[in-house]
Amino acid sequence: ILNVEQSPQSLHVQEGDSTNFTCSFPSSNFYALHWYRWETAKSPEALFVMTLNGDEKKKGRISATLNTKEGYSYLYIKGSQPEDSATYLCALDQTGANNLFFGTGTRLTVIP
Amino acid sequence: DGGITQSPKYLFRKEGQNVTLSCEQNLNHDAMYWYRQDPGQGLRLIYYSQIVNDFQKGDIAEGYSVSREKKESFPLTVTSAQKNPTAFYLCASSMRSRQGVSNQPQHFGDGTRLSIL
């Protein structure tokens, strides 16, 4: 059983604050790391697919970094807004077959 | 609009009964996936299909069956052999590049919540 861990499990931040959370995974047999945002009553939405050690990706105020040697990825949100409130999931692909193993997510609440 | 449609949104099953969850996509994606979510756990892969008429077991396939007769459709049957079927089920799809399905983001439906009567 793979161990993809996300921390913290949940957090509350004030509007305008920047925040970050972590996804840890086994560093062996790495192929890709996915990040998804899952808003309540909606379907999960893809944010990033990261494959290379040292990769950094950005989408608006959200960015992510990847360290495959030590087995972690960080997701950063700059200037959090209430609409950023969601559960953020990371998922590991170890084979390239796009069979993802998901973490349990970080639930972010942005307080206006 | 292009997307993935799962139906029904809520489904109730009696003990010993098979039920089928529908998943249809009009994104022209080759690959499709079924996941299950239980409280406190991450999404777990049940079955996946990378191409029509082919599918593979995921991490928790026991008690489930699928078919992939059309590119657009990937129905999941929860059989009576699945002893704990109460869960939230998500269907997803992804593109297939010349390199295969790797590195392709998955697109998800809205899910079906299955409960046992």
Instruction: Please bin the fraction of helical residues of chain A.
Output: under 10%
Could you give the distance between the termini of chain A? Answer: 39 Å
How many strand elements of chain B? 11
Overall geometric form of chain A: globular
Number of strands of chain A: 11
In round numbers, the mean pLDDT of chain B is: 92
Sheet bearing the most strands of chain A, described?
A: 6 strands, mixed
By oligomeric state, this entry counts as heterodimer
**How many helix segments of chain B?**
0
Largest sheet of chain B: 7 strands, mixed
Please give the radius of gyration of chain B in angstroms: 14 Å
Query: What Rg of chain A do the Cα atoms give?
Result: 13 Å
First-last Cα distance of chain B: 35 Å
Structural class of chain A: mainly beta
Strand content of chain A: over 45%
User: What is the SS-derived class of chain B?
Assistant: mainly beta
Overall pLDDT confidence of chain A: 95
In N-to-C order, the SSE pattern of chain A is: EEEEEEEEEEE
- What is the share of helical residues of chain B? under 10%
* Biggest interface, residues from each chain: A-B, 25 and 29 residues
**Poorly predicted regions of chain B:** none
Short description:
Chain A is mainly β.
Q: Mind explaining what this structure looks like?
A:
Chain A is built from no helices and 11 strands. Chain A has strands at 5-7, 10-14, 19-24, 32-38, 45-50, 56-59, 62-67, 72-77, 86-93, 100-102, 106-111. In chain A, strands 2, 4, 5, 9, 10 and 11 form a 6-stranded mixed sheet that branches. In chain A, strands 1-3-8-7-6 form a 5-stranded antiparallel sheet, with no helix packed on it. In chain A, strand 4 (32-38) and strand 5 form a beta hairpin. Chain A is globular and about 40 Å long. In chain A, 37% of the residues are buried. By secondary structure, chain B is mainly β. Chain B is 0% helix and 47% strand. Chain B has no helices and 11 strands. Chain B has strands at 4-7, 10-13, 19-25, 31-37, 44-51, 54-57, 64-66, 76-78, 87-94, 107-108, 112-116. In chain B, the strands form 2 sheets. In chain B, strands 2, 4, 5, 6, 9, 10 and 11 form a 7-stranded mixed sheet that branches. In chain B, a hairpin with a 2-residue loop joins strand 5 (44-51) and strand 6 (54-57). Chain B is globular and about 45 Å long. Classes of the chains: A mainly beta (112), B mainly beta (117). The A-B interface holds A 4, 31-32, 34, 36, 42-46, 49, 51, 89, 91, 93, 96-105 and B 4, 31, 33, 35, 40-45, 48, 50, 58-59, 90, 92, 94, 100-111.
